[in-house]
Target: Fpg/Nei family DNA glycosylase
Amino acid sequence: MPEMPEVQGLVEFLRGRVRGLEITKATVANIAALKTYDPPITALQGATITGVERHGKFVDIATSGPHLVFHLAKAGWLRFTDALAPTLIRPGKTPIALRIALSDGSGFDLTEAGTKKSLAYYIVNNPADVPGVARLGPDPLDDTFDRDALAALLKERRTQIKGVLRDQSIIAGVGNAYSDEILHAAKMSPYALASSLSDDDVDRLFAAMRQTLTDAVAEASGKPPAELKDAKRRGMQVHGRRGEKCPICGDEVRSVFFADNSLEYCATCQTGGKILADRRLSRLLK
Model:
C-alpha cells in the first residue's frame, strides 16, 4: 500500500508536471470507485490544475473548478504518460479506475490490481468534504507535531502501539509498512501498550518516526511514479523481509500474520528475544 512517503513523491512529481495544465477529459472506468456525485465528474473538464497537495495518504489535485481527491488503497497506483494513447477504455475489462487527459497530450490513469477493489476518488469543492480527510489526525512531519504532541496522543490509549501508528485518525499517513520500520528503529515491540510507554520510550519512538519518514520522503523525492514502489522496497529494514537477517543485529526477521496482512519485526532488537505469537491475540510466547 502506498503510504505517506510514496504519496508525497507522487504529489511532488505531479506538482512539477501537471500544474497549469487544463483537464481536457475525465473518463470514469470504475463507477464504484467514484464516491461523489455533486459536483459531477464533468466539472473537471476544462478546469485548470492549480496545485497538488497531500492529506495523509490522500492526493488532492486542486483546479480552477473542483478538487480531485483520491486514495490509492492497498493495490492502487497512478500511471503517468507524456503521450496519452487514444485507447478506448472498456469498464470492467481494465484495471483502470479513472483516466485524466491533459491539454499538452499527457495524462494519467488511476489503476488498481486484484479483485478486491478499494481505490476511491472524489470530486469535491473542498478536500474536507471527503470523510477520510476530515477525520485525519496530525501529520507526523508537520512542524507543529513535536515529541510532546505524540506523548499526549499516546497517554490514554490502552491499545497496541502498532495499531495506534496505523490509525489515520490518530496520526496521518503511516500504514503497515512504515509502522514496522518505525518500531524497529525505536527498538519497540509492536504489541507494547501505547499508554504504558515511558518517557524514554516516547523519546525513541518520536525520533524513530521523524527519521524513518524523513529519510523515506527524501528517497521518494524526485522519482517518477514508476520508480516509487521499488524505492520503497529497497528502503525497508524489516517489513516484507521475513526470513532475512536483521541489518542491525543479524537475527532472523519474523512475521505475525493476520487476516489480510502481516507485521514484521526482529525479536532481538524489539522484544528482548521473545517470539511473538503468530495469532491475532496480542501476547508473547513464553
